[in-house]
Amino acid sequence: xxxxxxxxxxxxGSHIVVPRLYDGDHAYILQQPDRRIVFAIPYEGDxxxxxxxxxxxxxxxxxxxxxxxxxxxxxxxxxxFTRQITSGDIVWSWSGVRPLHDDGAARAQSVTxxxxxxxxxxxxxxxxxxxxxxxxxxxxxxxxxxxxGPALGAKV
Length: 156
What we know:
Layout: E1 8-19, E2 28-31, E3 37-43, E4 47-51, E5 55-56, H1 67-78, E6 92-101, E7 115-120, E8 126-131, H2 137-148
Antiparallel strand pairs: 1-4, 1-5, 1-6, 2-3, 3-4, 7-8
């Protein structure tokens, strides 16, 4: 049996796409009253992608953009853009589930986006990776190699 001290927490992030809200190819980061940020970026030429939310879920299958999330994202951009949108403007939406390192934070949006590595050398070396995100994948890979490489006889 492997004795990991870390755990993951599943947090859903939803995105919506609406007809283009502004000219140009720049992105916006919109600070919200709840201290979260929401982004708006050009998408597929004629659209704007808006995201994302932070909702705790129990299972990856729960990755469905809810009506509450749709309303939250519409309200988020309506605070900043002249062109106002409603849920009726949403062309499509999607959700994904992030497996975040459970750092004990009370709220999903407060959970760290960092990662934790645990090396178990009781038997064959086993490296468990908790959390992380695509933007830290290179650093995570380098740290993972540094951690497990010596146990595998690799010179790092």
